[in-house]
Design goal:
Elements lengths: L2 H5 L8 E4 L2 H12 L6 E5 L2 E2 L1 H7 L4 E5 L10 H6 L5 E7 L11 H7 L3 E5 L7 E2 L2 E2 L6 E5 L12 E5 L2 H14 L5 H17 L5 H13 L9 H5 L16 H29 L13 E2 L5 E4 L3 H11 L11 E2 L16 H9 E4 L7 H13 L1 H5 L1
Parallel strand pairs: 2-4, 2-5, 3-13, 5-6, 6-9
Antiparallel strand pairs: 1-10, 7-8, 7-11, 9-10, 12-14
Helix pairs in contact: 2-3, 2-6, 10-13
Length: 382
């Protein structure tokens, strides 16, 4: 299967609905399922804090299951053990764009009337055994945030596969969700254009710090506001559509995605060839899987020191995920997570870093990144 075929389901207007963010698409899906206060939703314990937040906004309870430490995706065997009479849905995440193991256990969940939601925030275009991710479950969502392979600055898509749920989504989409203000849409369109035009990986640390400062002080719209990270009540203007003003940017992002994914796959192959014989542990890809390589993850033993050295050397290295609920917050319990629930995810969060795969990184830059990693092997092992 080529990239165009795996992207096609996400471009079908009959089954897709565009929202202001991927997390809003998830909320809309949970709403169409009929999630109510007291219901339980199974959530992988290595995800963005926005995922359990969407569950909490409906008064439901996120129940976290641990990961497979080889693939970094949720372990469905562990999830099944957490099933209860209150379980209404399970979220299956394709971490870093690597398809999760979608096997006979899915049928087991279906037999128990559990809705299956695929989290394709990292994985728009990925496929497993010739089938696009996002088409295995009842519904799926993806993200179009700054760092994603297809980016419009902010945005997300809900893909409905279940006809009953689709009918429900048709009902609520224009009733509960509103168009964003035109000014906000224009700001996002401008920021997205600037990102594509001027961002360079050498500016990564400056750009990251500047972006977080601007979002914290409400200067620009951000992926997560301070309000979202500190409170479990739905923030203002959460229930927004993508915005008609920006539809051209969505079409453009999807049209450039195949070339983008080819580039990411090439860089990932280079990282693998240069690091595999150095006994560097990285994510395992399932047989028959093709990843979008949102980032190229690997594990180190002194994460903080390596990131500090990378900042000093102006080397782009990411810290995803720095917590079982990313980004790291002090009040995990408010979002339903208690330390010790998912020990494998917690250990991985202490060790994982990632290398960039975006189109701003050429092969020369990738070589410099690999040289930095190998040169700092003592930091990695400290």
């Amino acid at each position: 299967m080529d990239w165009l075929q795996s992207i096609e389901p996400w471009t079908n207007p009959q089954n897709c609905y565009a929202f202001s963010k991927g997390r809003v698409a998830l909320y809309a899906i949970l709403n169409t399922i009929g999630i109510e206060p007291g219901d339980e939703v199974l959530v992988p314990g290595f995800t963005c804090v926005a995922v359990p937040a969407a569950v909490l906004y409906l008064g439901a309870i996120p129940v976290f299951f641990d990961i497979d430490p080889a693939t970094y995706n949720g372990d469905l065997d562990l999830a099944l053990r957490l099933f209860s009479s209150k379980t209404r849905a399970i979220i299956i995440q394709h971490t870093f764009g690597s398809p999760a193991k979608l096997d006979s256990l899915l049928q087991e969940f279906r037999s128990r009337k559990v809705a299956i939601i695929e989290d394709c925030a990292h994985a728009l275009g990925a496929h497993l055994n010739g089938k696009p991710v996002g088409t295995f479950g009842d519904a799926s969502f993806c993200s179009l945030q700054w760092s994603k392979p297809a980016t419009t600055g902010l945005g997300g898509i809900a893909l409905m596969r279940n006809e009953r749920l689709k009918s429900r989504m048709d009902e609520i989409y224009n009733i509960e969700f509103k168009e964003p203000r035109v000014f906000k849409s224009l700001v996002l369109a401008t920021l997205s254009w600037c990102y594509r035009k001027f961002f360079h990986h050498n500016l990564f640390w400056i750009a990251q710090d500047s972006y977080r400062f601007a979002v914290k002080h409400n200067l620009i719209p951000g992926s997560s506001s301070e309000e979202e990270l500190q409170k479990t009540a739905m923030p203002d203007n959460y229930l927004e559509k993508f915005g008609k003003v920006r539809y051209s940017s969505l079409s453009s992002a999807l049209s450039h995605l195949p070339r983008n994914l080819d580039h990411r796959e090439t860089l990932a192959a280079f990282y693998i060839s240069e690091l595999s014989d150095k006994k560097v542990k990285t994510q395992k890809l399932l047989p028959g899987a093709r990843s979008t390589y949102l980032r190229f993850p690997l594990e180190v033993t002194n994460k903080a020191n390596l990131l500090h050295a990378a900042r000093s050397a102006r080397i782009e290295i990411g810290d995803w995920f720095n917590s079982p609920l990313h980004p790291k917050i002090h009040r995990l319990g408010d979002f339903g997570y208690q330390i010790g629930i998912c020990p494998k995810a917690e250990e991985l969060a202490r060790r994982i870093i990632n290398l960039p795969t975006h189109v701003g990184v050429n092969m020369s830059s990738a070589r410099r990144i690999v040289e930095f990693i190998l040169t700092n092997s003592e930091i990695m092992k400290a």
